[in-house]
Amino acid sequence: MKRWAASGEALAGRYFRCSDGLIVRDPGISSMTQVLTGLIENGEFAEVLQRLD
Length: 53
Fold this sequence. Notes:
Order of helices and strands: HHEEHH
Number of strands: 2
Largest sheet: 2 strands, antiparallel
Distance between the termini: 31 Å
Shape: globular
Strand order of the largest sheet: 1-2
Number of domains: 1
Strand content: 15-25%
Radius of gyration: 11 Å
């Protein structure tokens, strides 16, 4: 996340994602909401969080 903070990736290092999870750097509902809003605004929401059938 530190590397991405410098490069601007992953909303400036505010989250980490893997195939079955999403980790938000800062605790709290506000931080999670800001990350989800950023993913929606960048068009990455469906890529990061995939719907399960």
